[in-house]
Design brief:
Helices cover 81% and strands 0% of the residues. The protein has 21 helices and no strands. The protein starts with a helix and ends with a helix.
Amino acid sequence: MARARRRHARPGHAQRWRLAWLAGGVLVVVVLLVTGVRKFVVDRLWPEARVQALLDDAAAATAAGRLSADDGSGARELYEAALALDPDDARPRTGLAEIARRAVAQAAAAVEAGRYDEAHEALRLARALSAPRQHVDAVASALRAAEAAGAGLDGLVESAQAAHAAGHLDGGPRAALPLYQRVLALQPDNADALRGRDDALATLLERARTGLRQGALRDAAATIAAARDYDPGHADLPDTEARLTEELDALRRRAARSLEAGQVERAVAQWRTLLDFDPEDARAQRGLEDAGAAYAARAERFARDFNFADADAQLREARALAPDSNAVRNAGEHIERSRTRHARLGPQLPPAERRQRVESLLQQAVAAEARGDLLSPPGDSAFDKIRAARLVAPDDAAVARASARLLPSARQCFDAGLRANSLARARTCLDARAALGEDPGAVREARRRLAQRWLAIGDERLGAGNLAGAQSALASAREIEPNVPGQAELAGRLRAASLSGN
């Protein structure tokens, strides 16, 4: 009976399977049809419709005289959009050629009506769309003549001569050279303007040569570039450019000597000045790599004395300058080995080894004092050697005596830095005083004095309109002494100046 039921069930079961397969096939066909229709509509009909809409809008903009517009609604922009959708369609190119022709016509009409700014704008559009040059040049010539007739060229020349006599050669529309250029743009053969420009450029280039002699390399280079823009054929330009080249070579030599003398920071500043002038200066690039190696060597010296804070600081400088240098990479590995050794030995450093290490450091400190290297160079100064000895044996009597012996020099260094307004140097000396164990009250008072000096500098810079410099000085003061009296008042004045735009 069960077998009979299964026989009766089979026809219905098979029919359901056939219906399922049929439904699946229909679904596949529908999907293919939808995909095909979508592809045909999107890939064929929609771009054509979109291009036609753009062409219609462009034609309307052309008829309205709106040849170009920053918001994309101008005829030029619409034709260019249509061309981007279908580069093979000739109609957008024909439309752009018509825009170029109309731009020339608009410029000519603007010249006739005395609308010179509008004429200039139309000519720029015509040139951008490659309008026939002879037509553009003809309208441009008429525009210059019209502007010259109405500009009062004699008055412009007199204004330029007065600015020249006052020494105002460049740097604003009322300066001598820009005024001479305006005259020459309208009347290229104006003898007074040509002669005045030549004399003004001679004076400007003499200023550049004076700046070169005084070491103002960047300003001199900018002045030479400005002179070249006004007249690349000026007679004094080749000699001044040759002097600039000589000064660049001299700066390269000074940077190399600074590095050899251990004045790494100065060398870095000099190499960077050269790179500001020419980012591709290979010698300056190598100089920064060498400076990175010098920082790496300093880092290793600090690490040998277990002074890891300074070692890490010097290593950061090295990596910033020469991240791919083998010397820098080796220094990092050396510091890690020293750190591991220090952690392993720690307080278990044998007394004999500790005593030997302290004696060696103190002898090096005495030698540095004899050389006059009290607080610099980093890593080799008497201060650094004594500080390293304090890390190894903070309670050693000999170390305490050495610290006391060096402390007066650190105080003198701090006071000298304040007198000379060398506040970065004063900060270094203040840190030395603290590290050498000076009375905390005296250190706090010195911090307050240094922070107040930074506030005074910030006040001067704010009065001169140098908001960024004033903000930097305020930040330096707060870093040294967060609650220094007067910092809140300076901060308030800075905010007010920033809001007022002064």
